[in-house]
Amino acid sequence: MIKAAFVGFGEVNTPKELIIHKCHMAEENLKNEGLELISVYPVTDDYEEKDINAALEKLKGQDFDCLIVCIAGWIPTHAVVKITEQYRHKPMVLWGLCGWCEGDRLVTTADQAGTTALRKTFYDLGYTFKYVYDIVGLPSKTKDVYNFAAAATAAAKLRRAKSGMAGYRDMNLYGTLYDGGSLKREIGAEIETFEMLEIEQRYQTITDEQKQAVIESAMNKWHFLKPADPESMKKAAGYYLAVKEICDERGYEAISLKDVDGMKKLLGFPPAPIFMLLADEAGLCTIPENDSLGNITQIMVKYLTGQCAFYLEFYEFFTDRVLAGVPDYVPAEAVDGTVTVMPAAFGELSEGILNVSKLKTGKVTMCRLCNIDGKYYMHMVTGDAITPRKWEEAGWTQPAPQLPGLEILLDDVEAFAQKVMCQHYIISYGDNTGIIQELCSILGITLI
């Protein structure tokens, strides 16, 4: 649930029933969006400050991630600040309601007199806040308030988020590295590394019965274009259970494995089916090749949208689109139809179980968190994803598999390409730029 405190204000001389009615309507609209509210209103500037003290008493000790300051009419600044100062560490929404029409007359309680007196004050006091104002005759901006509150909850959850990483810096890549101190300070998430040896040690304790249970309950649901080696099926199930044990014990919400120089080279087992099981059965964000900030981007997007936030990597740029795909797996949530797999080998690597599913199409948001000279940025763009033409990656055993992929039409491929930050970008369906932008504003991340 997205938890927020809702405090409604109005000046002591304004008819009380009007302030209560306006605040109640705003409160109900937010609840209908899905917010869980701790509400107190009306708060006035009464001389003895009874309303202010009552509000502080009600909010005392309550657990919430965002403070919604609802201005239902003119209110002297001090009456608001005496409450907001107690929660200056929380993200806030400064939300001005509006007047209404009665026949040919506009009736107002001077809501925007209150918000305009407060906006710069909030800025001067160093609050992290969003300013929203309603307009007479137009729908209330409830969704804007909701999005900011949802982003505030995501920001709070990131302070407790942990990602697990088996090994480090697969293929000696630079673009997948991260700085632990700044990540914890600015974003809040923690990346914990563990050795692949621990996976292998745990794998040795997994029984054939446990492996078979996973095969029957999960893997047999996949559509196999060709039968897979039974031993490969057992290995996938066993390694999945080994990694899941670690994730469950340590509270990881995302996982990455050393892929090319780890699972494939040292253990002789391409980890695609392991990732599929971790994503689909354990509900984890997954990405290969020790992609640190890719994993953190996934957590952010999942918190905001509820989607699996899968990764794609770029294969080709065209004048109006990019071809993005994966050489291993995609989560079932992103698949159009049945999860489809086949045994296949790439180059000198061992044969594995490759995902060749068709991806869902439609409006998508592509984004990636990155660190430039010690400062965090989010590169983000929307596009229209369509089913790709027939294509293959050279090196696969023939006939080459049709890898999962999308052709994503962009407004300006050149502008995107000149700012691209990595081969991996995180995909979510729909235009999610607004809510991602809200989270970035709370965390101080610059949008590109």
Compose a concise summary of this entry:
The chain is an alpha/beta fold and 448 residues long. The protein contains 14 helices and 21 strands. The protein folds into 2 domains: 2-158, 3-Layer(aba) Sandwich (Rossmann fold); 162-447, L-fucose Isomerase, Chain A, domain 3 (Alpha-Beta Barrel), CATH 3.20.14.
If you had to describe this structure to a student in words, what would you say it looks like?
This protein has 448 residues and is α/β, with parallel strands linked by helices. The chain folds into 2 domains: 2-158, Rossmann fold, CATH 3.40.50.1070; 162-447, L-fucose Isomerase, Chain A, domain 3 (Alpha-Beta Barrel), CATH 3.20.14. The chain has helices spanning 16-33, 50-59, 77-84, 111-124, 142-158, 180-187, 196-203, 208-217, 230-250, 259-266, 272-280, 292-305, 413-417, 433-443; strands at 2-9, 35-43, 66-71, 92-96, 100-102, 105-107, 129-133, 162-166, 190-194, 223-224, 254-257, 285-286, 310-317, 321-325, 340-344, 352-355, 362-372, 375-386, 405-409, 424-429, 446-447. β1, α1 (16-33) and β2 (35-43) form a beta-alpha-beta unit. α7 (196-203) crosses α9 (230-250) and α8 (208-217) packs across α9. The two termini are 30 Å apart.
Termini separation: 30 Å
In total, how many domains does the architecture comprise? Answer: 2
Can you tell me the CATH topology of the largest domain?
L-fucose Isomerase, Chain A, domain 3
Structural class: alpha/beta
Provide the helix percentage: 25-40%
Quote the average pLDDT.
Answer: 95
Q: Radius of gyration from the CA trace? A: 26 Å
Q: Which percent band covers the strand fraction?
A: 25-35%
Number of helices: 14
Count of β-strands:
21
User: What's the CATH class of the largest domain, please?
Assistant: Alpha Beta
* Major beta sheet, strand line-up: 13-14-19-18-17-20
Oligomer: single chain
Largest sheet: 6 strands, antiparallel, barrel
- Approximate shape: elongated
CATH architecture level-2 label of the largest domain: Alpha-Beta Barrel
Low-confidence stretches: none
